[in-house]
């Protein structure tokens, strides 16, 4: 296994397949690394259980809530659910402001603060240890991993970088519903309702590609903060520099993990895992492992981009020196 790891690490000009292959090799070559990431991800795992259950319930209820809004229907009573209890007629009218909006705010707060912080802690530890496993041939013991995993100054600096990333990411995520609502409003004015789904799909698809491409840059900035000690705006600038010429690979890498996460959630919603049972535990367990693999792949992607950029700079310097040496002397 170690010889195979060395062979993959030395592979230059890696495509997405080689990055994912190396990620799997690094993750599974050391059982202590698997156990360590499992233990350090437990707080994130349990909070994610609650968040994902509430999120899937909200996704399922969203069409019913939206369809009951007064400005989207001509006959509000049509969307009301009616039940008879003890000869009393009860009309349950879905309320956006009282039922739906508080849940959305709760999801936003959980995602922005505690979930982000717990994911940040497991992410930093994962990236630091995976970098050591890449550069070292010796297997680390579980004790060594716990002793070498925490650096307070590095954690604080990287957390600043993660706040920049979180802000930029949330701003772009807000653009998705804003784009859809504007498309609907614009084309409904002209009565072109049939064009709304087509235009929305094109606009959201283009916006999604931009989001994934930028996500690769933002994620690399966190890797830079962990490995190179550059924080905040400086990390974003360095990440932008190293990712130039490699952004298609970064987009494809993020697309792989994005599609996997979406498909897994759709399967769980289809089988109603959010109602309880072992399904939701299995889903969050898989998502936690995939999240670890994503950050290991980001470390590998960063190392490859950095090596490519430094080799390109070295080649330019050699070419410049060669031209100067061949230039005619006066």
TrEMBL record:
The chain crosses the membrane at residues 31-51, 150-178, 184-204, 216-238, 250-268, 280-302. It comes from the Eukaryota. Keywords: Membrane, Transmembrane, Transmembrane helix. The keyword Transmembrane applies. This is Uncharacterized protein LOC101514280. It comes from Cicer arietinum (Chickpea).
């Amino acid at each position: 296994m170690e010889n195979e790891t060395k062979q993959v690490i030395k592979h230059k000009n890696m495509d997405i397949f080689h990055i994912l292959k190396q990620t799997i090799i690094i993750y599974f070559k050391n059982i202590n690394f698997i156990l360590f990431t499992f233990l350090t991800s437990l707080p994130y795992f349990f909070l994610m259980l609650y968040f994902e259950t509430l999120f899937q319930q909200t996704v399922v209820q969203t069409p019913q809530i939206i369809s009951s809004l007064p400005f989207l229907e001509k006959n509000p009573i049509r969307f009301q659910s009616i039940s008879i209890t003890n000869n009393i007629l009860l009309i349950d009218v879905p309320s956006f402001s009282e039922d739906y909006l508080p849940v959305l705010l709760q999801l936003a707060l959980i995602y922005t603060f505690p979930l982000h912080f717990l994911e940040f802690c497991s992410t930093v530890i994962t990236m630091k240890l995976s970098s050591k496993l890449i550069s070292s041939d010796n297997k680390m013991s579980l004790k060594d991993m716990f002793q070498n995993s925490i650096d307070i100054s590095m954690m604080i600096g990287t957390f600043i970088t993660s706040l920049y990333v979180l802000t930029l990411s949330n701003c772009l995520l807000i653009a998705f519903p804003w784009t859809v609502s504007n498309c609907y409003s614009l084309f409904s004015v002209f009565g072109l309702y049939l064009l709304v789904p087509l235009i929305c799909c094109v606009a959201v698809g283009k916006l999604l590609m931009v989001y994934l491409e930028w996500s690769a840059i933002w994620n690399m900035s966190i890797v830079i903060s962990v490995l190179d000690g550059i924080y905040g705006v400086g990390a974003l600038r360095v990440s932008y520099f190293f990712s130039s010429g490699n952004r298609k690979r970064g987009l494809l890498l993020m697309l792989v993990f994005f599609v996997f996460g979406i498909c897994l959630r759709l399967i769980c919603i289809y089988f109603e895992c959010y109602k309880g049972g072992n399904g939701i535990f299995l889903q969050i367990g898989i998502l936690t492992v995939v999240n670890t693999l994503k950050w290991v792949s980001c470390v590998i992607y960063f190392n490859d981009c950095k090596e490519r950029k430094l080799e390109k700079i070295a080649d330019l310097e050699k070419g410049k020196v060669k031209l100067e040496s061949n230039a005619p002397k006066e």
